[in-house]
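Lab notebook, bench 4. We co-purified these components, and the gel suggests they stay together. Before we commit to crystallization screens, I want a quick structural picture of the whole thing.
Request: model the full complex, all chains together.
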Amino acid sequence: MYSRLRITTAMALVLAIVAAFGAFEGSWRTVLAEDAAKPAPEEQEPTEMGSPDVVYVGTPYDLVSVMLQMAKVKQTDLVYDLGCGDGRILVLAAQKYGVRGVGYDIDPERVTESRQNVAKNKVEHLVKIIQADIFTVDIGDVDVLPMYLHPDMTKRLIPQLEKMKPGSRIVCHEYGLEGFTPDETKTVVSNEDNAEHHLMLYTIPLKK
Ligand SMILES: C[S@@+](CC[C@H](N)C(=O)[O-])C[C@H]1O[C@@H](n2cnc3c(N)ncnc32)[C@H](O)[C@@H]1O
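Here is the predicted assembly.
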């Protein structure tokens, strides 16, 4: 009688374990299925995400060309534009050098505009646009980083910039990296606005 009771208890225990495992596996499968169904970040619809830290002003196209030349962009490079505006820097880099680029902007209007610009110029195979706050972006894999941001933002980005790979290049439009010495500086008058613009090239590791 006791041994029958022991067998029944053992069987109940086994059944409970099997049922618990089944439930766990089922919920795990649901999580995986939900993840698989989520669109990739570059395909997610832009939404309101927080105010931009600086308003949108595009770098004139002739200056973009000079910035890319200063960075000596080559086809194997990966270019990021933090605060990509209408995506012009990455579109031009893809067209001229065939390089891959990722653009980040917090403003949903800019994200939509950049994606339209990428599609219009048929460089979707090279350029992705992601809505994100630039202060959360991992830039460890980047080779070239053109930047046109408010000096306070550039200052806040320094810890991220210092984690870039040795040999990667940063080209700043108008506002350089405070406290660091550029490898090259250029003053260029743009044909678009007839104004003088200052460009600065830095190479990682940054020099004081
Ligand atoms: C001065 S524009 C530069 C646009 C582009 N890089 C160019 O040079 O043509 C700065 C861009 O940064 C974006 N921005 C501002 N704060 C941001 C943040 N915290 N995260 C992501 N983008 C931001 C703005 O929406 C704007 O499009």
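The CA atoms of residues 11 and 158 lie 62 Å apart. Worth comparing against the SEC data before the next meeting. The helical segments are 2-37, 61-70, 88-97, 108-120, 151-161.
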